[in-house]
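Appendix B. Raw example, untouched.
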Amino acid sequence: MESVPQTAKEIVYSLPTRLKLDKVDDSTNSTFHFKLDGPTGGEFTAVIKDKAVTVSDGLVGEASCVITAKASDYEDLELGRGNPQMMFMMGKIKVTNLGEVMKFITFFQRLA
């Protein structure tokens, strides 16, 4: 990666370059919807399938997990500016499927 993505949209779109192929198997098939409120966010779909990730604008298909946050809070989470456990406990980051998001975390290189 040449430069570290800074906005929520850039961070979500960086997922394909951060995928850890050794952590994803052939049977992995998950769809994540991101609802990131604010000028640097938006709504996105990330699909992990066939050992690859595709990201698109909008909420496409049925999600295995929906991640909802303010774009600025998601940026803080991904860029290491916030304590992930506290952000979840305080409701700054909301997820609909904790098991799926825990797998998601292991699939990608951290930004910070």
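End of appendix B.
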